[in-house]
Amino acid sequence: MSTSPTDTEPAPTPPPGEPEDPRLALLRGMVRIRRFEERCVELYSAERIRGFMHLCVGEEAVAAGLVGELAAQDAVVSTYREHGHALARGVPMASVLAEMFGRATGCSRGRGGSMHLFDVARRFYGGNAIVGGGLPVAVGLALADALRGEPVVTACLFGDGAVAEGEFHESLNLAALWRLPVLFCCENNRYAMGTALELEHAQTDLALRASSYGMPAWPVDGMDAEAVAEATRRALATIRSGRGPCFLELRTYRFRAHSMYDPDRYRDRAEVARWKDQDPVERLRTRMLGDGGLDGASWDRLVAAVDAEIEAAVADAEAGPLEPVEDLTRFVYAEPS
Amino acid sequence: MSTAVVPERLTYREALRESLRDALRADERVFLMGEDVGRYGGCFAVSLGLLEEFGPERVRDTPLSESAFVGAGIGAALGGMRPVVEVMTVNFSLLALDQILNNAATLGHMSGGQLTVPLVIRMTTGAGRQLAAQHSHSLEGWYAHIPGLRIVAPATVADAREMLAPALASPDPVLLFEHAGLYTSEGDLDGAPVALDGAAVRRTGDDVTLVTYGGMLPTTLAAAEGLAAEGIAAEVVDLRSLRPLDEATVLASVRRTHRLVVVDEGWRSGSLAAEVAARVAEQAFYDLDAPPERVCSAEVPVPYAAHLERAARPAVDDVVAAARRTVG
Predict the structure, then answer these.
(1) Cβ contact (<8 Å) for B111 and A126?
(2) Is any Cβ of chain B less than 8 angstroms from the Cβ of A35?
(3) Which residues partner with A114 through β-bridges?
């Protein structure tokens, strides 16, 4: 993609009275995540971000297409690869970065880091770093909403690795048994850390396995943001009608290694290249350039606006104070409000 | 208060049931879930009759999926409910340990204080019924190791009746351990509210402090009775709360008696008894007239045969002997 933010014009806006092409929001959402993640690599290399960091480059269509379709009152439970989900949910970029810098202004006050972003005001119930550990919690959030009669959905994101965990099967069974409003979102990027799908699952059709619990389940092209958004709308409508949970298998791929520690020895270069041909950002951009939904100048403006947001967020996060060491043991137990 | 309509003298089981009934009546957000809590009436019959009174929405039978239903309790607590989750026994809670430790105990801190998990998990603990190792563990001391949890162990009928209310009122996750050997014990209610973190002196005495909790309280009180016959006045401190520990009550007692015996059904190595003894040694070393003694379970998976099981668990004679050594 173009990286020359020379144009200082405002971001593209539709003429008065004409609604913006909804694809632009998807494209902008994906570019935001892509460029944020790439900036995180630089910040990690500069040792300003430490610990484990898992990037979702290549998987932006899931974050933008799925999380972007949720209503404000819906809940989100995610994994350690959740920067994109958090940004798509509206967690402020500066508070995400401040968290990774270990600052008091971070969205978890420096207690969580990259893998544990929380924003309760946006019903973003965090990155869980135990594979499968978020699923039971999502079932419980949905149970609370159902008991109160709220027409609210909990979206639970996890990877293909989680499908091998007992918590996955327990949770799908329980949600289906009690017809709870959970959208199970399996971000199938074909690798559980370094172990290929075929080497970890006897049955690699994950939607088929989910459907055995008696819920609608289907595979989606996870490299196509429009397809993800469309499938999400369909699933949400089903769940909101009171028919219990749905399962989406979002077939996607991470372009980068599992984490910053991963030398990526287990993937064939040609395979990675084939998937990169399906780059979700490029696919939507090309489609829109082809049908007039986007032109070169508006693309440049979009990228420039995203880059400006990122740099402002980096500066904002850098300026945040550290949490005082005297506060080390705060929040282990609830504090009087 | 519904205490007016229940008999004054109850069993431990009935007291627990009445506390659940009160909680379900008092707060729409409270619900009970777990294996066989509804139609079966609870594995230990604690919840018998509650399904009929409150319906299946609020007394929920779950599949045998400890991790999912404990995690669902955590999620429901995050979502504003006040769940009471029954895990049949502490042995099975290991299947939910990920949820208890990595989520319930951790989310508050890891979210920078944004989340609280007001959840109560009840479970049965302890040996004594020839059920062999996998149904006889005493792991509450393990759980007491974990910051973020509150651990309580009602040892009396009155505590069984009164502990659930403060546990539900707490914004923190509370694990409530019911000893299998206590369900049929009888006691009187005094209606006094119980604090969630205060120990109770069950018997006063000046010669030796016997610290215990939960299922070992009857054993310890029997030992104190035996010691009294020998002219040794033992004070019995019931911890009630294993986390946080009420150090002040223990230390005040030891500073008077100058002798300490800790009675704990857990295994000795790395036990709660070790923690109590260490804290006394750290803070009241110069008040001690004898080395602290510990009476714990033998370091063996609890065996089936009656004589072996008996030998594995702390017995009255063991406590008496330990107390004698401290005054000897």
Answers:
(1) yes
(2) no
(3) none
